[in-house]
Specification:
single chain; 280 residues; alpha+beta; Jelly Rolls; Arc Repressor Mutant, subunit A; 2 domains; 4-stranded antiparallel beta sheet; 10 helices; 47% helix; globular
Length: 280
């Protein structure tokens, strides 16, 4: 079970939450206007952001992940066990814009090792600021937020592609529903025709809004979800490859091999052998 502790109060232009528990948190796909930074302190699996997966914890080290405004994202996989401690910071978009007026025209890339350390230091200092017991605590917190915004803009800011300023909320709501539908039906025979008919959209319009918002085609996204499911089954079960392929939505092992190797640069059976070798 995961416990949530709100560290920063609601009268601030930020929300800082600490997570602790014996199972990695699973948060379903959603989006919001705030800019968010998530940091795993101990344990953690992956973050899904606009069609791509990012590790939260590698080599016993937490990796801060940046979630841009209106990005569709989720965390972890259901029922993944393991102790977890983490922080999530959300910065109000309007407040960010009051500090940096050109926020509409930029987005933030994921941090490199140098930026990772700077961001982690800022998050830890924010927690320390909250624990101060003096009347200037709010000033200390806002000062740290300003410094963090400076780091984001100067180190990680880049111009938005194709001069897109902000994707419409209507499309984001629709995309969230489409993504959840694919995630729930990846084992079925999913095609653009099936999905467009379900959501009463033309195939062309569906393909365009998906690619524009997710930076990945529907076909590639479906394959990615299926491979991710197969990947988990390779690690956690002893099922034969054909059963894993069919359970993951692939028609045969040849299709699974092709997509798995495309993403991981290794065949499923070779991957399983390596995992078994490390376990022993």
């Amino acid at each position: 079970m995961i416990k949530y502790e709100k560290i920063i109060n609601s009268d601030m232009p930020i929300k800082l939450v600490r997570f602790t528990g014996e199972i990695y948190p699973y948060i379903d796909k959603h989006w919001h206007n705030s800019i968010e930074i998530v940091l795993a302190i101990c344990g953690g699996s992956t973050a899904f952001i606009d069609g791509k997966y990012y590790p939260l914890y590698q080599n016993d080290t937490g990796i801060p992940v940046i979630i841009n405004s209106c990005a569709i994202h989720s965390f972890g996989t259901p029922n993944t066990s393991g102790s977890y401690i983490g922080l999530a910071l959300q910065i109000n978009y309007d407040f960010f814009k009051s500090v940096y007026k050109d926020i509409d025209h930029i987005q933030f890339k994921q941090p490199d090792s140098h930026s990772c350390n700077q961001i982690k230091e800022c998050l830890y200092k924010l927690v320390e600021c909250f624990e101060l017991r003096n009347k200037n605590k709010r000033i200390e917190i806002i000062g740290q937020v300003y410094h963090l915004i400076y780091l984001l803009v100067s180190e990680l800011g880049e111009k938005k592609k194709d001069s897109v300023i902000q994707k419409s909320n209507k499309n984001k709501h629709r995309l969230t529903s489409i993504v959840k539908y694919i995630d729930a039906h990846y084992q079925d025979k999913l095609t653009i025709e099936v999905i467009s008919e379900h959501f009463n959209l033309s195939e062309g319009h569906l393909s365009k809004i998906f690619k524009d918002n997710m930076d990945i085609t529907i076909k590639a996204y479906i394959s990615q979800i299926r491979v991710s499911h197969a990947h988990d089954m390779l690690i956690h079960t002893d099922l034969p490859l054909i059963d894993i392929a069919l359970s993951s939505g692939f028609p045969n092992t040849k299709a699974l091999n092709k997509e798995f190797k495309h993403l991981y640069d290794i065949s499923p059976l070779e991957y399983r052998r390596k995992i078994n070798m490390y376990d022993h």
